[in-house]
Amino acid sequence: MAVKNRMLLVLMSLVLMAAPLASCGTPTPEVVERQVVVTQIVQETVIVEGTPVMVEVTKVVEVEKQVVVTPTSLPARDVIIVGLSAAPVTLDPADHRTRNSETVIRNMFDGLVTRDQVSGVHLELAESLEWLDEQTLEVKLRQGVLFHDGVAMTADDVVFTFERIINENMIEYPEVHSSPRKGLIAPLESIDKIDDYTVKMNFSAPWPPAIQMLVHQQIVPKHYLEEVGTKGFIEHPIGTGPFKFLSATGLEQIVLERFDDYWGGAPDLEPVGPPCVRQVVFRVIPEASTRVAALLAGEVDIIQALPAELADTLAKTPGVQVGTAAGTQPKWMEMNVNQPPFDDVRVRQAMNYAVDKDLIVEAIYGGRAAALAGPLSPYNNYINTSLVPYPYDTEKALALLAEAGWIDTNSDGILDKDGISLAFTMDTLEEFRSLAEAVANQLRALGVDVGVRFWEYSVVKPMLDANERMAYLDDWGDSAFDPVGHFEAKWHGRVTGQTYGRGNFSGYNNARVNELTKLGEITPDPVVRQLIYDEAQQIVYDEAPAIFLIIPDETEAARADIVNWGPAADSRINLHDVCVAAQ
Amino acid sequence: MRAVKILERVLITIPIMFGVAVVVFFFMRLTPGDPVDIMMGQAGAVSTGEIEQLRREFDLDKPLYMQLWLFLTKAVQGDLGYSYTQKRPVNELIFDRLPATIELAGGALFFSLVIAIPIGIISAVRQKSLVDQFSMAGAFLGTSMPSFWLGIILILLFAVRLGWLPVQGRITYGINLEYVTGFYVLDSLLGRNWPALVSSVKHLVLPSVSLGASVAAIVARVLRSSMVEILRQDYVTLARAKGNREFLVVMKHALRNALIPTVTVVGLQVGSLLGGNMIVESVFSWPGLGRLVVKAIFERDFPLVQGAVMIYAFTFVIANLIVDVLYTYLNPKITL
User: In terms of Cα–Cα distance, which of B278, B272, B233 is closest to B256?
Assistant: First the structure.
């Protein structure tokens, strides 16, 4: 009796079932082998009694079989939809300057290095990085990494990628122009291919934040770009990332699909391997309340940029989880140090003592923020740990103001000096309304007549550049966690025609701080750098050109069954790791 | 004769468009704020060299009259330049978004007319009745409710609480639809794709209601008052005296005349439906032109704003032309 078996079918379905589980990070499936009884469809040929005819019948039988089982079942869904707060401007890694473009791009492209959810940098396409001297970085590339079209990534692609960024007029569509990302790697002078898997990067000067800044450059395929040009590339981008491009509707909806031949991702960032989900969809939902509604209605799985006032409510809502990560956008109220009353350091210090930052963190941000202890974010890799935020101490503030001559002589509730009231206008942007009004109220309680004026950034900026305004509340983003960004832009004196002090709206200009800023930029030794920045932070803290306010966390939300997910400080949404919990 | 007149009116749009182009060009440049400044943002080092290069790239280093000349000579050839921020041709960006905007405006118009015309007629015929008072109070509410507020309330009620309708977007993810015209409802009909039709119509409902509510209110009030006026006319009394059924008197004799002011109002509203829907587009994350333009204004993306405003002006002029042509059908005594 011949038996024709359909084992193949059963095996295939078992394999298919196991595949997504194996690639799914959390919950980590505990793999055990055991004997089970499975139902199997078998076909056998029987000879019907009494007749010479052979009939083929199909019947279901139970057999014992050795299988690999996991305590979890299939992921409930294999498509993840992400609600973005703004559309990316392009999918070309070399042609944008926005965070949301990078958020999407980094799921399709890999960099030489990547960052974890906080500030740690990990090797990605680079197998090793070695400083040959203070200005030369040797990069050994990982072998066996494939682009989405199956072509292997080599040193040629890396050289091409960086030359496309640092050289002029390398992007030809829609009109010839240079990459706007050059400024993010400005000290890189040239890049040479040593062999197929080694390149050498030559910097114009020692540049300590180099490795942190490399996170923001992704490798593109030379052969493909040369073949299809920039226009063809942005219509159908190809990278080495965990997901490949499937389609885009404008850039309002971008659909990516799992790249099954993905090399795995940074080896020291678990999980390693192809992504868990089959497809990811980025959808632009600009209105925060709509994003939240879409999450509640189950239309999206993850939402970006959750407003502080909605975070608490959502955190208490069943079926939804709220996650936070260290923020990268500290907020200050800068004071014009070249005009009275803020030309007196005692007045500026008094302003710092007069603001209750803990109250602001609790009341406005629901605890999802941290008070600033000086000019840098507490998450900076070179924070001066001996500094603490200015305590809330109105008595001390009043004493300092009195010392500077500001006393309420006419009992009208406003401090005055030589017949002039202590009054100023705080300029800010609409997005900082609640913070600005809280600060203004606390200063008013002290006896300072503060008005708040809301501007559009592009309108107020020329006035700030000219140091014409009294006080300005704003933030300054920097996701490199290195002091260079903030010290160069905010606390170094303004230098016309240079990048120094380009975001310095207080007019603060201290020779020693300037010197330390420049020294910190070219000092590779971390111990020496720490000493340099400790001193610089101490000076700025004492001289208080700004009220050092707070830094809000990055807050995002997801449906409760989304696992292995969490916001990242640099706004990356790492969908490689994300999975959907089993039902 | 009518065709010649229509052609004449179409040709008049050319100088109008020219005027609009020049005005928008100067207004954008008079607004404080520098596109390059905004574009470079905060991150990373931006050298003056880079900034100058960008200004050269955008022709912002040239004198104003040169910039205007460059813009106009290109615009005549149908090239509206390319967006500073998105690095894509303005034409392409606009025509990507235009179908969504027109579909939403169409949905809103359809909703508002379906609601407003019966209400207007019934309130006029049953003047001062409970129905009249109730619907006019509703109309008052409709005009005074801000569309973003109405939108959010509708989302919370019908999408989040009841789950009947989707929160945002134009179609449910995963439904395959072949995009031919960019109008999803039309595309699903053309492809006889019923799941796509159901999904796109469902997505259209809440934004259309939010956008159309105020139009419905205005149209209902205008139609009511002109109907009230017309119903008092002698020829209506005559029509009744001839023994015509009341329904026929109202629908055939009175309504046709009462529609003239209504059509005028609707024509004007079409312009605001097309150009004034950026708020509703934001609330429902509807990928239309309005949102694109508002963003472009904030970013001082001159070419994109100029191009979009010209498109708005063009549709406005055409909408008015259609209204004028409709007049001649409603009342043959009116000529173009």
Answer: B233
**Residue A94 vs residues A89, A97, A181, B208: alpha-carbon distances, Å:** 11, 9, 6, 39
What is the ipTM metric for this complex? 0.84
Query: Which residues on neighbouring strands pair with residue A325, listed in sequence order?
Result: A554
Same domain, B284 and B207: yes
**What angle do helix axes B302-330 and B289-298 make, rounded to 10 degrees?**
140
B39 Cα to chain A: minimum distance (Å): 8
Q: Where are the alpha helices (DSSP H) in A175-297?
A: 210-214, 222-235, 288-296
CB contact under 8 A, B291 and A287: no
Say what the pLDDT of residue A473 is.
97
Domains and CATH numbers, chain A: 79-291+563-580 (3.40.190.10), 331-552 (3.10.105.10)
User: What is the rounded average pLDDT of the residues A139-167?
Assistant: 96
Chain B CB contacts of A247 under 8 Å are: none
CB A74 within 8 A of CB A17: yes
Q: Is A562 helix (H, G, I), strand (E, B) or coil?
A: strand
CB contact under 8 A, B168 and A182: no
pLDDT in tens, A515-562: 999 999 999 899 999 999 999 999 999 999 999 999 999 999 999 999
Nearest residue in chain A measured CA to CA from B287: A252
Note whether residue B91 is domain-resident.
Answer: no
Q: Are residues B70 and B215 in the same domain?
A: no
Q: How far is CA A105 from the centre of its chain?
A: 12
Angle at A8 between CA A7 and CA A13, to 5 degrees: 105
Which of the listed residues B24, B48, B76 is the one where a domain comes to its end?
Answer: B76
pLDDT in tens, B141-184: 888 888 889 999 999 999 999 999 999 989 888 888 888 888 99
| Percentage above 70 pLDDT, chain B | 96
pLDDT in tens, B212-225: 998 999 999 999 99
**A182 vs B contacts (CB less than 8 Å):** 50
The nearest CA of chain B is from the CA of A247 a distance in Å of 12
Decide: helix, strand or coil at residue B310.
helix
Instruction: Give the residue from chain B lying closest to A88, CA to CA.
Output: B86
- Let me know if residue B335 belongs to a domain: no
Measure the CA–CA gap between B248 and B239, rounded to whole angstroms: 9
DSSP-derived 3-state class of residue A460: helix
Provide, as residue numbers in chain B, all residues whose Cβ is less than 8 Å from the Cβ of A485. 43-44
By CA distance, what is B52's nearest residue in A? A497
pTM metric for this prediction: 0.82
Q: Do B140 and B213 lie in a common domain? A: yes
B266-302 pLDDT, tens digit per residue, is 888 888 888 768 889 989 999 889 888 888 888 888 8
pLDDT of residue A462: 85
Least confident range of A73-77, A80-84, A325-329, B327-331: A73-77
Q: Which range marks the domain in which residue B32 is found? A: 2-76
When CB atoms are compared, the residue of A281, A294, A459 closest to B32 is A459
- Distances in Å between the Cα of A70 and the Cα atoms of A29, A31, A39, A260, A578 are 6, 5, 18, 22, 19
State the smallest CA–CA distance between residue B54 and chain A in angstroms.
Answer: 8
B175 in a structural domain: yes
pLDDT digits (tens, 9 = 90+) for A22-67: 333 333 333 434 444 433 444 444 444 444 444 444 444 444 544 3
Please give the pLDDT value at position A369: 94
Contact (CB, 8 A) for A111 and A157: no
Rounded to a whole number of angstroms, the distance from the CA of B262 to the nearest CA of chain A is 34
